[in-house]
Each structure stands twice: as C-alpha cells, then as structure tokens.
Amino acid sequence: MSAKSFVEGGIASVIAGCSTHPLDLIKVRLQLHGEAPTSTTVTLLRPALAFPNSSPAAFLAAETTTTSSVPKIGPISLGINIVKSEGAAALFSGVSATLLRQTLYSTTRMGLYEVLKTKWSDPESGKLSLSRKIGAGLVAGGIGAAVGNPADVAMVRMQADGRLPLAQRRNYAGVGDAIKSMVKGEGVTSLWRGSALTINRAMIVTAAQLASYDQFKEGILESGVIEDGLGTHVVASFAAGFVASVASNPVDVIKTRVMNMKVGAYEGALDCAVKTVRAEGAMALYKGFVPTVCRQGPFTVVLFVTLEQIKKLLRDF
C-alpha cells in the first residue's frame, strides 16, 4: 500500500510537471526580470554616495532610480519574445531537469503524504483534521525537497540560461551535464544551494496544495453540490493551486534568484530578500505571480485528476 502511493504520486507528478513546463519556465524568467548584476548596481550607486550630505534616503532614491529603468513585461509578451529570440524549443529548456525533479521530489512528497495521512487518520472514522493534513504536508514537502534539490538547482539554471548574454551562458547539454559541471566548477555543495529556501517553499506548497485539495474535495462532497468525479477533482485542485501560489510565491522568487546567482551575488536568502525589496519594492516578491497561478492551476489540476485516474487503474493491485 505504501509503495503504491509513491508510484501513483510519481507518475502523476511527472505527467503534470512535463506538460506545464513552458509555464514554469516563463515564471522563472519573470522572477529574474529586473535583477541587476552586482557590478552594475555598485557602479551606478557610487555617484549618490559621493555627495557629502548624502543620506540613507538619497541612497535608496538612487537605487530606485537605477532599477526603475528596467522595462516591465508580461507573461504573454515574454513567452513570445522567448520563441522569437530562442525558438519554440526554448520553452522546454530544462525539461530533463524537471523530469528528474518530479521523479525525486514529487514522488517522495506525494507518497510520504499518503503514508502520513494513513498513519495519522482517526482509526474509527478514518478522517484527518486539517491541522494534521497541514502537518503531513509540511513533513512530506520538506523531505521531498531535500531529496530533489540538485535537480531543482539544475532546472532553474537551465530555464534561466537563455536570458544571459551569449558569453555568460552555461549551455548545459542536459540535467546530467548541469549537475556534473556544477560539482566540477563549484563543488558538491552547490547542488544544495538554496536548499533551505527550497525546503521552506516545498513545505509551504505541499501543505497548501495537498491539504487544501483534500479539504476542498471533502467540503464539496459533504455539501452534495457535485458528486465525486472529474468536476469535483477539477474544482478542488484549481482552488488548491491558487492557495499554493499565494502562499509560496515570495519564497519562490528568492529561491529562484539564489539558485541562479553567480558566486558572491548574495550572501544568503535574507540578503537576497532585502536587496530585492530595496531595489524593486515589496511587490517584487510577487513577480511572476500571474504565470505562477497560470502554471500552478493547470499543474495542480493535471496532477490530481491524473492521480485520481491512476488510483482507479491501480485499485486492484
């Protein structure tokens, strides 16, 4: 029973991850949009610091002025630009890393969540409280993220590579080449760069996504509005995807920037968050929110609809 839940969750996650990969790529590019190289920022801020009466306010004003020149772009425009400049195949950059990530991370979190649900359910009623569902999601998400972090770092870098100048592109041949190059050039620890953020995000996403799906589904069935079937699964999963997007987007932005950074760009997650907010404003933490919802919604729908169908197919095994 336990092994079957891992297989079911893994298959559903791989299908959902690969089918929504272009949306995830656009989300990553938007989250990195506006991020300036460290050297450029320092050079442009020096004139502000050169005035004898300069104050912190003047410093911030100069920084704001520097970054405000970055043109805003929407997900559709960005998608069109990617296809025009890099070709349609660029929308699937890093898909091999997505495949590995879903195999490691999502298989672990989906399977473990089901195991914990079974263990923590009330033995008489078989029901599980919302708080215990959230707890199961937090534990499952954290462990899954620790397992899948190397693939996550590789995926972010491969997705973001096309936005770099030609001379700075990493040009990984695939997820295996990305991991090998990172270990060779930056050390084994680079595979777990941003792991604290990845784990925090995964705990939030898994708790919000899986627990809310179960909760929404139970609420719909108890209300008697819709019977258990495709309609219930679609409505509950889309609502769960929206909840997960709202809860995880700020952590996701910081995670993406830390994983994609050149060595020394940020001292850590907190430093990245502070620099991002100072340079681009607090709403920068919700950059890519529209594509996050557009990706998280379809991903969650595909994930749970596929999962429900796989459960039916494997019910007798």
Helix-strand string: HHHHHHHHHHHH
What proportion strand? Answer: under 5%
| Cα gyration radius (Å) | 21 Å
Work out the number of β strands. Answer: 0
Number of helices in the DSSP assignment: 12
Average residue-wise pLDDT: 83
Helix content: over 70%
Largest sheet: none
Helix and strand composition category: mainly alpha
Distance between the termini: 9 Å
Low-pLDDT windows of residues: 37-68
Which shape, going by the Cα principal axes? Answer: globular
SSE layout:
Elements: H1 2-19, H2 21-32, H3 38-50, H4 56-67, H5 75-86, H6 95-120, H7 130-160, H8 175-186, H9 195-223, H10 230-260, H11 269-280, H12 289-313
Helix pairs in contact: 1-6, 1-12, 2-12, 3-4, 6-7, 7-9, 9-10, 10-11, 10-12
